[in-house]
Amino acid sequence: MAKALLGHLPSDTRGVHRLTSENARLRLRVSELETLVLRLQQENDRLRDIETTTLMEQEMLPA
Question: Per-residue b/e over 11-48, b at no fewer than 16 CB within 10 Å?
Answer without folding.
Answer: eeeeeeeeeeeeeeeeeeeeeeeeeeeeeeeeeeeeee
